[in-house]
Amino acid sequence: MDIQSVLVLFGTFAFLMILGVPIAFAIGLAAFATFLLFMSFDQSVYIVAQQVASGLDSFTLLAIPFFILAGNIMNRGGIAMRLIEFAKVLAGRLPGALAHCNVIANMMFGSISGSAVASAAAVGGVMSPLQKKEGYDPAFSAAVNIASCPTGLLIPPSATFIVYSLITNGTSIAALFVAGYIPGILMGLSLMVVAGIIAKRRGYPVAERPSGQEVIAKTLDAMLPLGLIVIVMGGIIGGIFTATEASAVAVVYTLFLGVIWYREISPRELPGIILESAVTTSIVLLMIGCSIAMSKAMAFADIPYSISDTLLSLSENPLVLLLIINLALLVVGTFMDMTPALLIFTPIFLPVVEDLGMDPVHFGVVMTFNLCIGICTPPVGSALFVGCSVGGVKIGQVLRPMLGFYAVLVALLLLVTYVPALSLFLPRVLLGY
Amino acid sequence: MTVITRGVDMVLRLVITIAFAVLVACVVWQVVSRYVLQSPSTVTDEMARFLFIWVALLGGAYTFGQRRHLAIDLLPVITTGILRLLVNVGIIAAIALFAGVVMVYGGLDLVSRTLETQQVSPALRLPMGLVYIAIPFSGLCILYYCLTFLADLFRTGRGPNEQEGTASVGGPLD
Amino acid sequence: KTLRLNHNNPEDHPLHKSMQFMAERVEELTDGDLKIRIYANAQLGTQRESMELMQNGSLDMARSNASELEAFEESYGALNLPYIFVSADHYYDVLTNDIGADILASSEDKGFIGLAYYIEGARSFYANKAIHSPADLKGMKIRVQPSPSAIRMVELLGANPTPIAWGELYSALQQGVVDGAENNPIALTSARHGEVSKFYSDDGHTMIPSVVMISTSSWNDLTDEQKEAMRTAARESMDFHREQWDAMSAEAVETAKSELGVEFVEVEKGPFIEAVLPMHEEAAAKSPVVADLIKRIKAAAQ
Ligand code: NA
Ligand code: NA
Question: Which stretches make up the TRAP C4-dicarboxylate transport system permease DctM subunit domain (chain A) (predicted)?
Fold first, then answer.
């Protein structure tokens, strides 16, 4: 194993990241330092500059700003409220109905907005006062909200899968999207089971039975926002349009809903929403450009193969290796945000698991699921931070009720890892993948 | 300096917003031309991809100017006094190194070489050098912001990662 | 000395095997002095990126095809014209004689030099109906690569050119997003397009070769013996590749017929040739270099 290039790459990256350099630049400089080992100064700057721009040259990638824009338009209006009312109907008369309602609303809202933190903020913001009023422990309600908000990253459409597709040289986005359904829904359901048990033990109230009229009204009210999922996923699964085109259609649909149908957004607000979406997007995109440069530097230095060889020398047993990879990713997830972790570690681990005969779509789901846990853990966890802040509780308080959820999420992660059918069944049936 | 900064901000904002809107229109047109007009456009794909590179790189510069790129803001927060100053200078220097050397110097080399060899894009026959100009341009803007951040640091002690008001939490895709 | 060669095919692809053959021969001929390390699956970048890297000497070698190369060196445009070759033998003749060699050498000042052509068969239309003449193409949406000559050709034949990414093409054909596509018969089996397109109409409009190249600066760093070894290995790998490809192509046709039920349609090429002939004049009018190449290629057919 060529230890020098590994040290230069990860050493530079770690040093700069700890110093506080924005991650995108830290990645770019680490790539640059690694290229210097193989070529002249002029050639190194040339290749990094090229990769930063050219890494973004992908029609697929366009889906990210569009989904973010559609999500931002959605977040303006009263979509969250409509979905929560519908979730209440679905949660019905289960013990701790409001906790279940929170999970279901996160699954629906997260699916549409594709953002765990937006979901935690929008749904948690409405749900936590309601739960407090009914006597729920605020730390418990915050924990439910935090643990369930990442479901939307697995339930499609999901920008995370688009990033994964890009760095894996075009793993089918349609397949990844469809593969996310069962693990994402299982994630939500298992959290509901745990929350239900706790709620029952603590005697949290069930909801009042809604009248038939209410059920119909609230269901109808949620249909238009949920129609987005039908259009996007129906279009993709039906092969009518690509993920990118679907995302553009999603923008048009949300514009129609927000500006014309609900009249919750005035056209004057649009430039601001567009700019905000561009800013949010370019944080990711600069990181992607630099990461592409880094993955090329790794390829030049044969780093993925070195690491793959090292891992394979540890054990021949695929079950053990997958366990090691999952543990490594869980550790990474504690201190790193989802996107950089995905960008940096996918090119390293994918060759290993492909050697083990794992399907790249399956691994994409495992990786995303794993990092979904990471955004709920301290010290760095965006879902944890947002969930605590909208729930009005301290991080220290929420960790105790989170323990049970961590346990069920890790158990489910192992299930998703070792039972490929959970991910691959739907793509095979629906897409002939 | 604040006047120039406001000017740079405004130009970037304007270009990004318009380019983004055109981008949406481009892809929507691609769908419409195929399904409604039954004569698919052959250029929207490439146009959108190149526009997107511009939006991403200029957006990256503007976002940097807004101090919104993701960083692990640990050292600048726990250190004090001269050490904190050094850490913040180090951060700005590292970013300036990337922007100046890789984006501006390397980017210009890429631009001039692709212009020199007259390389064109497949569909639009657009000189690729024009697409790549976004790199040095973005690098220049970032360099400029680095300067203002440095001035800020010495004048008010504000570090390059410190946003105004409350910072937004989390990665954009989380 | 080890040269890095980047390409975008998987490791089980015939193109990869031919490059491997070339690498082995170079190593043998130089007694291990010169090695070629092949990076498959575009690990070091796309075809366009590889070209730009070779121009700067950041990458030693790459494989691309004449269609993509047209953006870097106009001479390759002559090879992309429909019906410029009258037969597979004429085609291979041109690639292996001085015309082919001149095109390979033409890009030296652009930062790269061609070493070998790898044939990829003739491309024809396939769809869910037989296409006997350009009239049958009228109004059909045909998937093309995003190159001006491909777009122009399909337009001249009366169809609507539709650029769709290669990876999306299967479902696009299945759902009728496009009515047809054009490629060599191997696409029917390797990309399973034979499952969704049941008629392969053998009009053989274009024969577009892959090209293996070396960066001019890497080339100049080689000794004369090493250059000679590279040339020999490159030439030998071309024949190796042709045999490999023809065998695979024949096998693909058989599989497509027997297992996928694709019908292969014999086509009277005359009306197709007539329809796209203006392209030869257009290309010649645009560039004297290409005009000269067209003349020489046509002369070689006699
Ligand atoms: Na989603
Ligand atoms: Na974490």
Answer: 10-422
> Which of A78, A215, A254, A180 lies closest to A416 in space, CA to CA?
A180
Q: How many CB pairs under 8 A join B and C?
A: 52
> Which tens digit of pLDDT belongs to each residue from B97-138?
999 999 999 999 999 999 998 888 888 889 999 999 999 999
Report the gap between the CA of C257 and the closest CA in chain B (Å): 31
Please give the distance, rounded to the nearest whole angstrom, from the Cα atom of residue A332 to the centre of ligand 2. Answer: 8
Looking at the complex, does the CB of residue B36 fall below 8 Å from at least one CB of chain C? no
How far does the centroid of ligand 1 lie from the alpha carbon of residue A131, in Å?
25
User: Among candidates A121, A246, A191, A183, which has minimal Cα distance to A406?
Assistant: A191
Q: Write out the E strands in A166-218.
A: none
Structure tokens at A405: 């959820």
3-state secondary structure of C164: coil
Q: How far is C148 from chain B (nearest CA, A)?
A: 6
Q: How far is the CA of A95 from the centre of ligand 1 (A)?
A: 27
CA-based nearest distance A232→chain B, Å: 13
**A170-209 pLDDT per residue, tens:** 888 999 999 999 999 999 999 999 999 999 999 888 877 7
Looking at this predicted complex, what is its ipTM? 0.91
Is the sign of the CA dihedral A60, A65, A68, A69 positive or negative?
Answer: negative
pTM over 0.95: no
Closest-lying ligand to the alpha carbon of A160? 1
Is residue A139 within 8 Å of A395, Cβ to Cβ? no
A375 exposure class (CB count in 10 Å sphere: 0-12, 13-18, 19+): buried
Tokens for A384, please give them: 């944890």
Each residue's pLDDT tens digit, B142-155? 999 999 999 999 99
